[in-house]
TrEMBL record:
Family matches, as InterPro entries: SCFA_transpt_AtoE
TM helices/strands, residue ranges: 20-40, 52-74, 94-123, 135-161, 181-201, 241-259, 265-282, 303-325, 337-354, 415-436
Domain of life: Bacteria
Any one cellular-component term (Gene Ontology): plasma membrane
PANTHER family tied to this protein: SHORT-CHAIN FATTY ACID TRANSPORTER-RELATED (PTHR41983)
Name of protein: Short-chain fatty acids transporter
UniProt keyword annotations, A-Z: Membrane, Transmembrane, Transmembrane helix
Amino acid sequence: MKPLISLSNRIMQRYLPDPFLFVVILTLVVFGLGLIFTDSTSIQMVQFWGEGFWALLAFSMQMVLVLVTGYVLASSPIFKRFLGFLASFAKSPGSAIVIVTVVSMIASWINWGFGLVIGALFAKELAKRVKNVDYRLLIASAYSGFVVWHAGFSGSIPLSIATEGHPFQDLIGVISTGDTIFASFNLIIVAVLFVVLPITARLLMPSKDETVTVDPSLFNETAAAVETEALTPAEKMENSMVLSVVIGILGVIFLGYYFVKNGFALNLDIVNFLFLFLGILFHGTPKRFLAAVQEAIKGASGIVIQFPFYAGIMGMMTASGLAVVMSEAFVSISNDVTFYFFAFISAGIVNFFVPSGGGQWAVQAPIMLDAAQTLDASVAKTAMAVAWGDAWTNLIQPFWALPALAIAGLKAKDIMGYCVFILVISGIVISLGLLFL
């Protein structure tokens, strides 16, 4: 495999543009496809693009906070020691690759936002401690765990159809998570991926002369010094633990109330809230906390600039009907045996242009659910086929990689050569599971 891996990395390094240029090119591609395959005019496509451009503002801010609060928490002394303890189990480059893949998959299955941040932060800690480990593969392995998120506790599609009053209740009723997330076919696919993906990542290790390592000293953040002789009341407050402890305890009390009331129901807001207030407590003083925030915010530029362009793409895909055209094309060639497979593949393709699980389901659900009933297929399995497709092509979609790349200090082209192989292997596993389970 090493010659193929080397070739893949060279191709990505040479031809994969910066994620910003990628989203610009993707915008033009969708614009052209809309003109070719729908009745939309060029003026209408521009209108759809502009009207959808700011549709992800709230989500963009959530993703910025995922990056910032996750980084702040991980840079705290307590959390550094915890990540260091986990990293101590890695005794070689190969074991580091395997461990980071497994940890990322566990975290992503629990909650997608949690997984995105923890995987990348843990990979950085491993890079500090394990000599001669390829840093690009380490981050790619951490990101690869994200492929299981939509089959886990935070899967937006299975959670949506399990909620009373969801948009398609009149068509399919309420579908329990026992028939989706905890269905045997889904759990088997997840279990197989937990075995196959770490092995795949381990086999992707490049030859020694092509291994790219980093200097561990580059990861050593300098904590803000505590001023022992503050000259003003303001400086005393900045270096005091009292305010941090008080506000941190308030945050912990709310979290306790939330979990007692809702159980272990994580969503993006709760993950950010948890990271934020633990970060405040663990840094001790406001000055140290704010210094960590200032360092973390440097990596958020890609999210701030690129997410509006993806919102514009989603606007063109949905308003023009292009997403529907793509979905119907796959349904038209399906039968009762291949339907789940083609639902998976179509969702993977649509995900390139509508990289939002909830948004993609809103577009594809009417076509897929109607086809499932026509073919007498399982509605629950159809929903999970779409969910798996949405998660699958995230492996080569820079949209979701941006937080991990910002934490790692890498570019998309640095990891995508590896991600392509992981995409193929995971796609085979998921496809076989949907076809035969």
